[in-house]
Amino acid sequence: MRPAPRRRTGTTMTDVSYEGTLKELSTDQGVLRYHEAGDGPPLLLLHGSGPGVTGWRNYRGVLADFARHFRCLVLEFPGFGVSDPGDGHPMVMAQGAVGTFLDGLGLGAVDMIGNSMGGIVATKVAIDEPHRVRRLVTIGGMGKNVFAPGPGEGIKLLMEFTDNPTREGLVRWLHSMVYDPAVVTEQLIEERWALATEPKTLEIARRMYSSQAFAAGAAAAAASNATPYWAQLHKIKAPTLLTWGRDDRVSPVDMAMLPMRDIPNSELHTFPKCGHWTMIEARDAWLSAVLAFLLRDERRT
């Protein structure tokens, strides 16, 4: 078994293991749990949705690399089995948790990285509370289908699993997340299965991804006069890097076209032979692109 990664700071070593980085923040909405590693400008990392997801599982493979440059804060959203569950819709709770978390730590504007749902949450924060976002990096997820039909294959499989949680359904969904099926290991399946079928976590997932909830949400959006977030992307003031797996079957890459054009200061980087988990499947190339973007201003000074 590989030892936990450690980050060198001068002559000392900083623990970047699960236990060594896990912290808690008590709030009026319950306990928010998070992982913290590194020193420097604050970098908030927001996870996606789906069976058995956590912030740690999304970013454990890149945390040590970011911790060499930033004070990394991996927030666990309410309702996904790590932070306290909450009573609301997971997306709404997630956006509220960002402001609560940053205020609780006394932080102003931070850099944000958001994977899938986390990217949508960070995008909404950048629109509604621009003072909180210094620079924005998204990993798939956000935007709107232009050519590909929606919902994508991965979302349909996610709904199927949420309606009828079987191990076979989980495996089908996991394979839709990646280009290379070898990424879906037995260890990954087992750790995802254990959390995805925990009763409270599954109940909260059904608020968002059951076929009934998905249909109700689509109907409510169609009947509402509210402007969807993807029609407000022009309001984002933060420099933005959109990262996308070219072979994403959850949020097809054509979804990037609208944010690429509408966000005033945005860039798009796509990764070949890569599905929805760009930070995992194209790890080294993705890290290179993201670090170049986030460190660009510092290198000029």
Automatic annotation (TrEMBL):
Signal peptide: none annotated. Its EC number is 3.7.1.9. InterPro entries: AB_hydrolase_1, AB_hydrolase_fold, AB_hydrolase_sf. Pfam families: Abhydrolase_1. Gene3D superfamilies: alpha/beta hydrolase. One of its GO terms (molecular function) is 2-hydroxymuconate-semialdehyde hydrolase activity. It is an enzyme of class 3 (hydrolase). Residues 41-281 form the AB hydrolase-1 domain. Keywords: Hydrolase. The keyword Hydrolase applies. PANTHER family: AB HYDROLASE SUPERFAMILY PROTEIN YCLE, MONOACYLGLYCEROL LIPASE. This is 2-hydroxymuconic semialdehyde hydrolase.
